[in-house]
Amino acid sequence: MHFTNFGILASTLAGFALAAPAPSKLRSEGTPTKLRSRQDTSSPYPNTAAKAKGKLWFGSAIDTTTAEVSDTEYMTIFNNSDIFGQTTPGNTMKWEFTEPTQNDFTLSAGNETINLAKATGKLVRCHNLVWSSELPSWVTGGSWTNATLLAAMENHITTLIKSYGSDCYSWDVVNEALNSDGNFTSNVFLTNIGEAYVPLAYKYATAAVAATGADIKLFYNDYGIENPGTKNTAAVNLVKTIKAYGATIDGVGFESHFSTSYYPTTTEQEQAMASVAAEGVNIHVTELDVACSAVPCSTADLATQATAYYDTISACMSTTACTGMTVWDFDDKYSWIQPASNSGEGDPDLYYSNYTRHPAYTAVYEAIVGQNCSVC
Which residues face 58 on adjacent strands? Predict the structure, then answer.
């Protein structure tokens, strides 16, 4: 997922409906709530709490291509390490940014996120190496053979892993390779290489990590795998295939893009995580957000949104193999889900556009520390 492709949300949520029936928790109508005045960097602190409970982080993605990095109020919250202990570059490490023309690498945009992380002691999930989207035209429009595209893919993966090195805690090596029905997503790699492009990408990444001498974790990242069903099973099988090729895969990212109309329960997410963890890999919640059905969020939708956040964080906290949780940016102003492009849905994040907190912020903290949800 990324911040600027708004059209993905509708298809993502539609995909969830195919994967499993919606749980019983559905939104109800209500009146819009007024924004409460609140000091936006005050306690409670989710990252500090998560680390105290043995998790690696509670974090937030950031997109340095937008105005958020020059927004003082935004950056004050982002830089607070008690709130966020990890970040993910929303766009700037994707192929079109890092290798816009063949073998001409531009790493400066990705380094902006790394430098922001270093300044406040955050870990970085580097995202991503191979994906169907945000590819430069020389990749999508090239006249490829199996061998030539494999060589280009290997060069891209190897160069980025070696160049960013230990500044990356982990890499999403392949992103969203599966459709909602569990079949492979059509793209230039599948067309020219076949399904083997996925395990081969991990073989190249495994060799590149070994060459750095660093302990860089290799993940697969996808949406719609957060509850039991066809796509979750397909993701488990993908892990098995990668291992069968002799490649390393350390974990699977559960994107967790939900809405107040659909989200999996804690139990469903625990079951989905258990299926993945049974393969000996870890889990990260990587792109969590929960869109309200309309903006401003109604009182009922805010309670449902809080429940959805609470259920996801609770599932991770109860799953030993789930080691980190990340929201896909934290402020509604800069969210990739905007009402004009998403049939009125929006305000999916933990902070309103005026930098006060949604009730979901409280729900996240309560889930981390094991308290009942007071705002659901």
Answer: 325
- Cα separation of 166 and 176, whole Å? 24
Nearest to 286 by CA among 201, 220, 206: 220
SS3 at position 345: coil
As beta bridge partners, residue 127 has: 172
Spell out the residues 6+ positions from residue 169 whose beta carbon is closer than 8 angstroms to its own: 86, 123, 124, 125, 126, 216, 217
Rg (CA), the chain: 19
Q: Mean pLDDT of successive 10-residue segments in the chain (376 residues)?
A: 37 35 31 44 96 98 96 96 98 98 98 98 98 98 97 98 98 98 98 98 98 98 98 98 98 98 98 98 98 97 98 98 98 95 96 96 98 98
Q: Are 8 and 1 in contact (CB under 8 A)?
A: yes
> Which one of the listed residues 68, 176, 268, 270 is annotated catalytic?
176
Which residue type, as a one-letter code, is found at position 150?
Answer: L
287 in catalytic set: yes
**DSSP-assigned states of every residue in 89-138:** ESSTTSHHHH-SBTTB---HHHHHHHHHHHHTT-EEEEEEEE-SSS--HH
Does an H or E element contain 17, and which? helix 8-19
The 10 Å Cβ neighbour count of residue 146 is 12
Burial letters 243-276, b for 16+ CB under 10 A, else e: bebebbbbbbbbbbbbbbbbbbbbebbbbbbebb
β-strand partners of 87: 60, 124
Is 279 known to be catalytic? no
Catalytic residue among 99, 270, 287, 345: 287
Whole-number Å distance between alpha carbons of 322 and 306: 20
